[in-house]
Design a protein that fits this description.
147 residues, mainly alpha, 4 helices, 78% helix, rod-shaped
Length: 147
């Protein structure tokens, strides 16, 4: 039994050593190793460039779609703006007609503020100092009596 174990270890050891020595690797020169690395790097760069082109093409397609959507949005916005301008012109025309009718009826429709100076305003200030509670417009129209 011992002889069998020794023979098995010797056989396995001999097989392993003769197998590893039987094929000698080719001597690798530094130039061949560098050329192999360069080839691998150029392949990797080629793949990266290909992926970059694919991504840039997708981005260009997305930008083209976005540009078309913006053009459509601009057209819609112009239509809305035109309709708002038309509505404003209609309202302005109605206000002009209203102002003409009011002036024809003898009512003051000016939108400019009343200047706070002169005899009426001085009388209003006197009215306030004596304990008056009304605002200037009410005083001017209803309370003040010219002398």
């Amino acid at each position: 039994m011992r002889l069998l174990i020794i023979f098995a270890f010797a056989f396995i050891g001999g097989y392993l050593f003769t197998e590893s020595w039987a094929t000698e690797p080719k001597p690798v020169s530094d130039i061949d190793a560098l050329l192999k690395k360069i080839q691998q790097n150029t392949q990797a760069v080629g793949q990266a460039t290909k992926q970059a082109h694919e991504v840039s093409e997708k981005l260009v397609e997305a930008k083209v779609v976005e540009k078309e959507q913006l053009k459509e949005a601009v057209v819609v916005a112009k239509k809305k703006a035109e309709s708002v301008v038309q509505q404003m012109q209609v309202v302005q025309n109605q206000m002009e007609v209203y102002a003409v009718k009011m002036v024809g009826a003898g009512l003051d429709t000016t939108t400019t503020p009343i200047e706070f100076k002169g005899v009426i305003y001085d009388a209003y200030l006197n009215y306030l100092s004596e304990g008056g509670k009304e605002d200037f417009e009410y005083f001017r129209v209803y309370l003040w009596q010219p002398k």
